[in-house]
Amino acid sequence: MNWRKSKIGIFAMVLVVILVGSMMRTPITTIPLILGNLAQSLRVAQGSLGILTTLPLVMFMVFSNFASQILKRMGFKRSLLLALAILVLGSALRMVVTMPTMIGGTILIGVAIAYLNVFMPSFVAAYFPQRIGLYTTLYTFSMMMGSAVFNLITAPIVKLTGWWTMLLILTVVPLLALLTWGLIVPHLPEEMDGRVPTPTDNKAPTKTVIWQNKRAWYFLLVFGCQSVMMYTFTAWMPSLMAYHHVGSGVIGAIMACFSLIGLPVSVFLPQTLTRVSRQTQVGLILSAGIVGLGAAGMLFVQNTAATWFWLIEALLIGYSVNLFFVFVMTMFAMKTASPYQTAQLSGMSQAGGYLIAALGPVLYGMAFSANPVGSAQNVVYLAIVLVATVAGLAVVKMDQI
C-alpha cells in the first residue's frame, strides 16, 4: 500500500504526529500539578519530589546527542518505535506509585522524549519534505495544546476521579501512538530516498564534525536560550507571583495563558517561515527579541499583585519563547540537506541547549532565595534574550549548515 494514496495511511500518519506531539511536554509539565498528591501517597516531603521535574532535563542533556546515532543504526521506523515503547514503559512504571518506580519511570520518559525531540524534525524532513511548514506546525501545535489542555483538565479530573487517573491518561496516549505507528510501519519506506545517509555522505557530517561546525552552534544558542527561559519561567514564575500575593487561582489561569499564547505561534509560524523572504524572517526574530526585552524590562518594576501586570508579563514571555522555539524547530529541517543531518543538528542543539536549561532554574532559585525581586536575574534574562536574537538572525542569514 502506498500510504500517500490512502486516506487511512495519511490519517494514521497525522494521528501519530498529533499523539507524539501531545506527549513531548505533558509527561513532564503535568507532574508538578499533582506533586502534593504524590508526596502524600509516598509519605515524603513535597520538596523531595523536585527531582521528578529535574531528571527529564538531565536525560535530554545526556541522550539528545546520541539520537542521530540510534537513527543511523536502526533506521527511522524502528527508532521511533523504540522511543515510543520506552515512553510507554516509563509511563506505565510511574503508575506503580513507589519512589523507585517514579524515579525509574521518569528517567525512561526523559530518555524517550529526548529521542522524540530529535526524531520529529527528521520525521518531517523524511516523509513530508515538501510540507515541512505544515507538519512542523502540526506537532508543535500538538505540543503546546497538549500542555495547555492538561493544565486545564488536571484539577477537575483529580477532583472527580483521583490523581492516579492522570498517570493512567499519560500512559494511554503514548500507547495509542505506539500502536498506530506499529500498524503503519510495514507500509512505509525507511526514508524518502530509501536509505539512511551514512557518515561518509558529504551531506551528512559525522557526529564530531557537527560539533565543529560553527554555524551549528547558532542553532544550539537559540535552542538553549529559549529552553532556559521556558523552564525557568515555568519553575519560578508561580513562586514569584505568590511572593507578590497573587492568588493561587489567578496564578493557575495566568500559567495556562502562558501555554495558550504559543498556539497561534505554532499554527502560523512554520508555514510562514517556509514561504516568506529572509527579510521577513529577520523581522519575526526581531519581534521575538523586542517583546522578550519588554518582558525583561517589566521585571524591574514588578512590585505589584495586579493581575493585568502578570498576565501581560506571561503573554510577552510566552510569545517570545514560543517564537524562538518554533523558529529553531522549523529551521532544523530547512537548513539541513538530509533527514539524518537534521537529526544530527537537532541532537547537538538539544544536548547543549538542555545543559543550559538545566542550569537556569537552579541559578534562578539561588538568586530568588537571596532576593526575590533582585536585579541580577533580570539582567541575565536581558542578556539571554539578546543572545537568542543575535543567534536567530545568524541562522536566518545562512543557506545551510
UniProtKB/TrEMBL annotation:
Xref: InterPro entries: MFS, MFS_Cyanate_Porter, MFS_dom, MFS_trans_sf
Record membrane topology: Multi-pass membrane protein
Main location (coarse class): membrane
Membrane-spanning intervals of the chain: 12-35, 47-67, 79-97, 103-126, 138-157, 163-185, 216-237, 249-270, 282-301, 307-333, 354-373, 379-396
Subcellular localization, as worded in the UniProt entry: Cell membrane
GO cellular component, one term: plasma membrane
Record flagged with keyword Transport: yes
UniProt keyword annotations, A-Z: Membrane, Transmembrane, Transmembrane helix, Transport
Pfam families, A to Z: MFS_1 (PF07690)
GO molecular function: transmembrane transporter activity
Domain Major facilitator superfamily (MFS) profile: 13-400
PANTHER family: 2-NITROIMIDAZOLE TRANSPORTER, PTHR23523
Protein name (Swiss-Prot/TrEMBL): Transporter, major facilitator family protein
